[in-house]
Amino acid sequence: MVIVNPVLLSLYRITGTFIHGLLVLAAPLLKLAAPDWEIASRLGQTSFKRQSVSEVIIWIHAASVGEIQAARALVHELRKHNSGFHFYVTTMTRQGRGVAEARLSSDVVCRIAPLDTPQAVAQRLRDVQPDVYICLETELWPMILSQLRQSGIPMLLLNGRLSERSWKRYRLIGKTMRYLLAGFAGIAVIGEQDAVRYRSLGAVSDRVKVCGNIKYDLPVKNPVTLRKNYRKILHLEQETVFICGSTRSGEEKLLLPVYDRLKSALQGRMLWIVAPRHLDRLVELRRLFKRFGLGFDLFSQCKKHGRKHDILLVDVMGELAELYAVGDYVFCGGSLVDQGGHNIMEPVRLNKPVYFGPFMKDFSDAVELVLSAGAGFQVQDGDELADRLIQHLNCPELYLQACKYAEQLAVQQQGAVACQADMVMELLAS
């Protein structure tokens, strides 16, 4: 998708037509050689057909796995307004489509998106005939946006985000970006910086609205109440709690020196809570702690029989998201080892700043959100994590400021899905 001027859309169209023709000729071979690529769907063909002019069809394009969570929240919210809406969701990858089919309700149609060629896009539009097209995050394909515009089908860009790197690249094709962005009736972005960047690229200023991130607009219990309840369950008095959630294989060994340094700095008045991502690793962790001569309690037993040690191993599922509330310092695992990280917004939603390692490729959007808000701290290894924790122990005002930033960020995410669903309803009404 490299275009330097809207005039070159004609050349883009011609090139797309040529590529489409080649793929049509090669389709029989591709079906045999690469069935997973789903050539028919990419050429615009779909088994879905609009049945009636009275039904309302909302086409949501969720490029891949990362956007499916946002699509799920949006579909759920829109059905509160009208349970009769029909949803048509497209992804760019087969994996994304599989995740969409698994996570969305069975009555949501999930398909591979058409290639951005005139023929494939036209075929799909003839079949689906959507009442509105919703692009999640940033998937700006010139041909589909142009044909939607020419067909008079209203478009929204929701949950928009634009990193500094992408923004700089898009500035190189400024005229094209102005043309593409002008076609959107509304653009909902995650943060203020995203709004500034979209407007600088030519988005109509009063059509851009800051709504927060749909993915992180989830209901949560009162953090203060949760904290009190867990401190009572765990028989905590003056102890400081260091909680490591969603840890992966090999990570706890890297965290042991952090525990030692933190315990020394706190003169032993601490509790270390370890919640492995997968419970089948409990045997591995039991052996690890015993090898180092460390006593520990299991969370399930602690709730019944009390706590005897300063290490607690979480051996139940579904507890961690709320258990974060009891933590004074929260580390999110899967990030000191190369496992892609985990959802660092879970502790933030409980007004807790979060610490995490360098391996966060699966949650890069959350990393940008948290770091830009001052609500989290990324470290490169266990030594740096211990250094940061001890710094915050010695300078509690720095940590308390991060707590305030986490609370502000959590508040910003509330109402994100309702805000964006309202934009859809307003557009349909108009």
Describe the structure in your own words.
It is a single chain. The chain folds into two domains: 6-217 and 415-429, 3-Deoxy-D-manno-octulosonic-acid transferase, N-terminal domain (Rossmann fold, 3-Layer(aba) Sandwich), CATH 3.40.50.11720; 223-413, Glycogen Phosphorylase B (Rossmann fold, 3-Layer(aba) Sandwich). The protein is elongated and about 70 Å long. Strand 6, helix 9 and strand 7 (208-210) form a beta-alpha-beta unit. Helix 3 (65-81) runs parallel beside helix 4 (94-103), helix 3 (65-81) packs across helix 19 (416-429) and helix 5 (118-128) packs across helix 6 (142-150). It has helices at 9-33, 39-42, 65-81, 94-103, 118-128, 142-150, 164-171, 174-181, 192-200, 223-233, 251-265, 282-291, 299-305, 320-323, 345-348, 364-373, 382-394, 396-413, 416-429, and strands at residues 57-61, 86-91, 109-112, 132-136, 155-160, 186-189, 208-210, 240-247, 270-276, 297-298, 311-313, 329-332, 354-356, 376-378. It is an alpha/beta fold and 430 residues long.
